[in-house]
Each structure stands twice: as C-alpha cells, then as structure tokens.
Amino acid sequence: MDTTRIDRPGAAIVFVLVAMLAISANDVMIKQLSGGYALHQVVFFRSAIGIVFGLALVHWEGGLARLRTRTPVLHAIRGLLVVISNMTYFAALAVLPLADVTALFFVAPLFITLLSIPFLGEKVGPLRLGAVVVGFAGVVIMQQPWAASETMGVSRWVMLLPVLAALCYAANQIMTRRLGLTTSASVLTVYIQATFIVVSLGFWLVAGDGRYAEHTDNGSLIFLLRAWVMPASSADLWLLIGLGLTSTVVGYCLSQAYRLASAATVAPFEYSELLLAVFWGWAFFATLPGLPVWIGMGLIVASGLFVFFREQVKARAIARGAGIRRR
Hints:
14 helices, globular, mainly alpha, about 325 residues
C-alpha cells in the first residue's frame, strides 16, 4: 500500500468543520474559567480528562499497542508546539475579546500556506503568495499600529500572542501532515494530551502556589501563573469536563483533517471559526469586533478563500494533464 499520500478532501473538510465548532466551544469555556483559575490548572484538568477519551479512541481503532512510535522526538516537538500555541492563545483570550483573539490567530492558515512550500514541497504560485500578503495586511490592520498604546487597553505584546500561537499552530499542522502518514489521529491526540499534562504539572511544581502572579498586574500573566484552587462550583467542574471532551474532539478531528488532505485544502475551512467566535462573543460576553477587526477579518477571509480556490483550479489542471498523458 502506498503510504506516501492520503487524499480524501471531502472527509477532511467535514473533520475540520467539526473541529472548528469544538474549538469555539472550548474558547468560550476557557474564557469563562479565566477569572478564577490558573491556565496551567485548566489545561491539566482538560488534558487529564481528554486523554481518557483519547485512549478509548486508540483502543477502539486497534488497541493501545498503536501508541508505540519510532519517532518519539518528532512527536515531542509537535506536542511542544501545540502547548506553546495553546498557552499563548489562551493567555491572550483572558484579556482580549473572543472575536479579536480568534481573528488575530487566523494568520495561521497563511503561515501554513507558506510553510507547506519548504516542508511539504507544495507549490504555491505568485497569485496565492499575493493573497498571503493581503492576509498579513489584515493582521496589521487589526493590530492598529497607528493607535496609542493607552487607547488599546492592553499591551501590544499581548496582541502579538495570538500571532505567535498561529505560527506554532501552523508548524504543528505541517508536522501532522508528515507524521499522519504512519500514525493514526487518535494516537496523535493522546501524544498531545500527554504533553499538556507533563507541561502543566511542570508549571504547577514551579508556580502552582501563585507566588509569581503576586508581582504583576498583567491579566495574561496572572491567568498563566495564579495559584491552583479547588473548583468553586459544580458548574465549573462541568466546564472542566466539557473542556476535556472538546479538546479530544479538536485533537482527533484536526489530526484527521490534515492526515486526509493537503494543508492548502484544509486550512481555508478553519475560517468558519471566525463567525462562531463573533457569535459566541456577542452571546456570552456582549462584545462585538471594532471596525479595524472587521476590516482585517475581511481581508484574511478573502485571502484564504482565494488561496483555496486557486488550489482547486491547480488540482483540476493537474488532473486534466494526467488524463491527457494516459491517452
């Protein structure tokens, strides 16, 4: 069997859309919990619960023996990329509106398109590269470099956190495309959850008593470094359980999506999360994006859709060429 290429774009699109729904629900729950819990505590409980669901999926797909791997270093690097991506994203989510953080993060598909050139050998022409530039212009507009720092309400470093998260996320998805040729989605999910558990326990050992949070008034750092506490209510406990379930869905579905189709095919459909973020931000937190965010969001979506449609045109042209050669 040829293991050099897996190409099921229809299934990949379904998986990525389910993942976006789960991610948006996950973000709402994280933001709800960010006022009273440490980020590394939330991540630990989310991953401890999520790994149970993940191990069940591994067992269902063929047994725990599938967890053995010949590339542990690559999986560890991928896991650390996901951890950095999540930590920086959630740290920004604690102090920025949900839609704003999501919109800034959506430079990720543009990073994926760029990284797919050297790491996956995918060819990206000048038109698609131009679309990537337009998308990055949208990110710059959302960053509002012309505005005074005082009017932004948060540090510009905080506003760069979702962009850093996007870069790490893009690198992770490129690695998923590589590793997914020989590793199932459920196994990839368990490796990620295990990495989260190890890193969050490390944070607990170093900062779990909250001593570092006492010396800062930065909301993101406070969320990252405050002390662990017992869940204050049954509602919070259910939120933590919900995070475990959604994180498993996200990890499994994204791994499947990027295993089953090219990065350029899958990535544009992640933009569906933008609409969900706007809706949840309005419904749960009574916030709507400002004009610069709407403009930047429009540019990013337009550039992503252009990249996607160019990819389809390219695929049809290759298919027609292959047909001619067969005749």
